[in-house]
Write a structure and sequence with these properties.
Length: 223
Amino acid sequence: MIAAIRQRQPGAPLWRIVLWDFIQTLCYLGLVIFYRHRSYGVNNIPRTGPLLLVCNHQSFLDPPIVGAGCIRRQFVALARATLFDNKIAGFILRKLNTVPVTQGEADLGAMRRCIAELKKGQALLIFPEGARTMTGKVQPFETGTMLIIKRAKPMVMPVAIDGAFDIWKRGGKLKLRGRVGVMFGKPIPAEQIIDMGTGRGLAFLRDEVNKLRNDLSGKLDGR
C-alpha cells in the first residue's frame, strides 16, 4: 500500500505526497463547484515512468485544472519565479515541489531541475508557449521543450485545457462562474518526436495540443 502511494511521486517524502493529494482534492471540489470542471482521457495517463505533460497556457488556473484531472499521477510543475516572492504562495509552491523559472531568459538551472526530476521517474507539467496566451489560441512552442525531451527522453503527453481564458484571461479579473476542463491525449515516445527535428517536432506537439483543445471545447459547449 505504502509502495503504491510512493509511486505517485518518486523520491518525495510521504508527507509531501499526502499534502499534494489533499490540495488536489480541494482544487477539484472548488473547480467543480464554481466552474463545472470536467476531465477526459484520464486513462491515458501512465501510472509510472518519466512523463512530460505538454499543455497550452490560458490562465493562472491552468495548473489546478490539470491537477484536478490528473488523478493517476502527481506532477512537478514550473512556476514564474516572482510568485515565490509572496511568503504564503512561495511556501505552498515549494511544498508542492514546484520549480521556479525566470521568464524572458534561458533559465538553465530550472532546465536542469526539470531534466533531473524526469530522470527520477517523475511526471512534469510544462507550458511550452512560455507565457499565458493573449488571444485564447495556442501559441508557438519554445525550443526549451525539445531540449528537455532530448535530454530526459520521457513519454510525452499532449494535454489541453479550455475555459480558463474566459474565466481569468491575462490582464483580466477572475470570474466566479464559468466552465473549464482538461483533456489528456495519448503518450508519445520521445524518440518519435526527436526524429522529427526541433521545428517539426514542436509544430507536431502544438498541433496535437490544439486538436485536443478543439475537441475539449466542443465537449464543454455541448454539455
